[in-house]
Amino acid sequence: MARRMSKRDRGPSRQDRPALPGVLVIGRGCRDHIAVVEKYPAENSKAAMHTHLMEGGGQGATAACCIRRLGGVVRLVGYLGDDPAGDFCRERLAAFGVDLSAMRTVPGGRTPESYIVVTRPSGRRTIFYQPNTLPRLTPKDLPPDLFQSVGVVLLDPETTYLAAHLPPRGPGAPIIVYDAERWRQGLDTMMARADYFIPSSELFAVPHLGLAGQPFAEQFDRLAARINGTLVVTRGRRGAYFLHDGRLCRVPAPRIEVRDSIGAGDNFHAAFALGLLHGYGLVRIVKFAVAVASLSCRAHGGRAGLPHRDEALELAAALPLEADVA
Fold it and tell me: What mean pLDDT comes out for the span 231-240?
């Protein structure tokens, strides 16, 4: 199906938004407990673990680590408790070189933890997570000067409600990238504000959108018509989909020996944000993000497998662009 070129194909102008030193990530941190099993157990049964490890998790925190591994400058905004899990998260973030000057420590707060079961043959994961009981960020945590030293702001799903408090569009404003997970308070406002709106295809099943059961291309078109920025949709091993020259295109994921996919989505968003900061065109950004997300799956935990920038760019250059796909 032919599609008319629109502002959504092009994204924000680089002339209006010059590259600045770093990326600001606003989002969640947690501690992950990961168990790798041969087969996911049935209820009321036992399963031997091949391995068990702990790693820092959370969409925002993992994305920040990815940006640093790729050579970017990144500052993380969020809350952690003063408990052992929070100490662990801070240590892992600091080990990657993430700027934690805007992170807040909550006295007596409980840092959320996740328990993840990875099925070894497929690399698929099942996540049991603790709902975040730490205080929510407020507009006071986002003073105007916080945005003055960054070119791109990446928001994870837990920060959706902050959409109305982001800097307005205009010359010199940072580019806003939003990781859309599911329907949350403020999502309509975020659809209007985000320069790049990046959900997985699972968002199409949300009843509020009225897209469930429709062909993927139609789902894409209808969601694209509701947002003011550029829509990019990830579909796991199928890769990432977006409009290019008025046509629905995709960059397929390369063949990688997958250990697990725990951080793949977070790392896609991180690489996408960094590609914007470097001034890459949209096709190159998507290829770069698909490459980084795929390579991150080659080790357990979402962070150990992260590539350096040159390795990711080499793989990205080999990825095809496929047009008129669904």
Answer: 96
